[in-house]
């Protein structure tokens, strides 16, 4: 394991801070292509971050104009982009929800805004979380996208403590590129882990897989776990 205070480590962080998109194009992509031509020999198979989706569910509180307006202002400050108000698709009487009822907010970031938000998230925002121990590697979905939640908005530097009436969190999804529709869940998750590791995303349990010598061993472990889950479900 490298010394976290080495010159190489500091230089890598400075490059990412300077321009994370440029570092991906000129640094990360060539390294993946050269070091693992079997997996990433085709440039279209190299994992890529397509967009970042940020969502906040307000529920019935969205009917309060002041709460909705303040949430829109917070989203605009944090992301640099005005959010879209999400509405219900159908009525649910048990939850007092009517059709086309305002329930939350969503923002989709692409291009330069996406990379600017990612840089802020990795190097500044996570450091503001008390007792932060990293994010779980188990939050990938079958397509290799990574979703996690933040409990409050105060960890972002754009938000002033005096302006917050109550802590409100949101869900953030990092949407990865899908090189092929035939890609297995294992390959999609592996591609997502590789990309986030190069971007220095704080995955706290990714080191679990370092004890295996090859991708084949990791794949076998996944297959055994899948078999055990199926066996358990069949017995229930």
From TrEMBL:
Domain Large ribosomal subunit protein uL5 N-terminal, first and last residues per copy: 42-98
Domain of life assignment: Eukaryota
Pfam families found in the cross-reference section: Ribosomal_L5, Ribosomal_L5_C
GO cellular component: chloroplast; ribonucleoprotein complex; ribosome
SUPFAM superfamilies, per the entry: RL5-like
Keywords from the named record: Chloroplast, Plastid, Ribonucleoprotein, Ribosomal protein, RNA-binding, rRNA-binding
Gene Ontology BP, a term: translation
Domain called Large ribosomal subunit protein uL5 C-terminal: residue spans: 103-191
GO MF, any single term: structural constituent of ribosome
Location in or out of the cell: Plastid, Chloroplast
Gene3D superfamilies documented for this protein: 3.30.1440.10
InterPro entries in the record: Ribosomal_uL5, Ribosomal_uL5_bac-type, Ribosomal_uL5_C, Ribosomal_uL5_dom_sf, Ribosomal_uL5_N
Subunit-structure text: Part of the 50S ribosomal subunit; contacts the 5S rRNA.
Biological role: Binds 5S rRNA, forms part of the central protuberance of the 50S subunit.
Entry similarity comment: Belongs to the universal ribosomal protein uL5 family.
Protein name (database record): Large ribosomal subunit protein uL5c
Species for this entry: Guinardia striata
Gene: rpl5
């Amino acid at each position: 394991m490298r010394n976290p205070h080495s010159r190489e480590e500091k230089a890598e962080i400075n490059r990412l801070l300077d321009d994370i998109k440029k570092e991906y194009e000129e640094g990360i992509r060539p390294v993946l292509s050269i070091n693992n031509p079997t997996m990433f020999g085709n440039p279209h198979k190299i994992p890529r971050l397509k967009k970042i989706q940020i969502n906040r569910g307000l529920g019935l509180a969205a009917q309060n104009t002041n709460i909705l307006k303040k949430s829109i202002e917070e989203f605009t400050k944090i992301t640099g982009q005005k959010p879209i108000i999400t509405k219900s698709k159908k009525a649910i009487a048990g939850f007092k929800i009517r059709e086309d009822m305002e329930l939350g907010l969503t923002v989709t970031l692409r291009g330069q805004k996406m990379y600017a938000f990612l840089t802020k998230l990795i190097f500044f925002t996570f450091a503001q979380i008390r007792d932060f121990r990293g994010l779980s590697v188990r939050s990938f979905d079958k397509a290799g996208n990574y979703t996690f939640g933040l409990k409050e908005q105060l960890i972002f530097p754009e938000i002033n403590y005096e302006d917050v009436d109550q802590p409100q969190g949101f869900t953030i999804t990092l949407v990865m590129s899908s090189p092929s529709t035939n890609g297995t869940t294992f390959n999609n998750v592996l591609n997502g882990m590789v990309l986030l590791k190069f971007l220095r995303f704080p995955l706290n349990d990714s080191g679990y897989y370092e004890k295996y010598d090859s991708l084949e061993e990791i794949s076998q472990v996944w297959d055994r776990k899948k078999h055990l889950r199926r066996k358990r479900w069949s017995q229930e």
